[in-house]
Amino acid sequence: MLRVVYGLEAVAVAADVRVEVDRWRGEFAGVFDRVAGRFAQVQSRLRARGYLLGLLSQTERKNGWSIAEFAGDADPQGMQRLLNHYRWDADAARDDLRGYVVERLGDDRAVLVVDETGFVKKGRRSAGVQRQYTGTSGKIDNCQLGVFLAYASRHGRALVDRELYLPRSWVEDAGRCAEAGVPAGVGFATKPELARRMLERAATAGVPFGWVAGDEVYGQHAGLRTWLEGQRIGYVLAVPCSQPVVPTAAGLARADTLAGRLPRAAWQRYSCGDGAKGPRLYDWALIATVRPEQSLLVRRPVGDGEHAYFLCHTPTPTPLAELVRVAGSRWAIEECFQSAKNETGLDHYQVRRYDAWYRHITLSMLAHAFLAVLAGAAEKGDPAAVDNQPAPA
């Protein structure tokens, strides 16, 4: 863990070298300058800056009270006004965040990864909260679910978009929505439909990327796949073993049935990226279908274990090694969730309103992107961002 001093406070940065204080300040100033104009009032601008610094601090729980204390406030009311009352556009700030990530981490071969994460909450008044399954706790829990878009490139990875999932029970209860500040025009949308909105925004904004990846929630959604194919966007999307595939003109077959017919020579061993214990090695095979741009990618462990399946859309001829790379990139969003929750308080908020959720999440994502850019620069040995001296003990 790298620590630098900003004023009298220590700020945590995820890297193993020491960042020179003046350069850290310069990077932070540049990041905040991107969004400062979104806060028309001087007071709201100062609060936003203080909130970002609080999210970047070593404060263990980054809620209204702790961020206010870090900023030197006597109570959290000012920070709560930033999230609940001041006039500013969180979507415009999100666009600024996305532009920052593209400028510093952009790559034409980048992968846009879609996934959701849970925010376990008490009560029933927070927008979108209900008992539902979340991978965060691995069970059905009282929680909110956010669908996110991550940008993963060879330069680094960061979250660039977000949508709050509103269950059907919420959108059908106008009174409950009004109490939580949900705009009247917000209707029900599935998680894959929310993912498509974010992907459309990225494509419209000209974000450089080569692929889309996601887990089975998104891979088995025919509407999302059809839209991506219509846009000629390549994808590697996980699907269940029961996924029907059309390998030949003879008709449909399950993914696991097709994998069971593969000859030994069809398998090739590749790493899909480095894990905590080194390269993540698997055996992989690619099954062509009657559709020339679609194929089924199969992954099996080296040794015993369950197979995994991915539907692939390749608008241009693509080698197996590249599809393996994209499949492995899906884990980038899990790493983003973990680091954003641990380092920039993604799940530490204490707000109930719909718009306040977007505001906190956007500022947390911006703080996380700042750390991702610094970490990427440190890994490249960028002299404009890092100091070559060893980290202090």
What does this structure look like?
By secondary structure, this protein is of the alpha+beta class. The chain has two domains: 2-211 and 333-380, no CATH class; 216-329, no CATH class. Helices cover 40% and strands 26% of the residues. It is built from 14 helices and 14 strands. The chain has helices at residues 21-36, 42-56, 64-71, 77-84, 90-105, 168-171, 174-179, 191-204, 216-219, 222-230, 255-260, 320-329, 331-343, 354-380; strands at 2-6, 9-13, 111-120, 130-134, 139-153, 156-165, 211-214, 234-239, 244-248, 251-254, 268-275, 278-288, 294-301, 308-313. Strands 3, 4, 5, 6, 7, 8, 11, 12, 13 and 14 form a ten-stranded mixed β-sheet that branches. A two-stranded antiparallel sheet has the order 1-2. Strand 12 and strand 13 form a beta hairpin. Helix 2 (42-56) packs across helix 4 (77-84). The protein is globular and about 70 Å long.
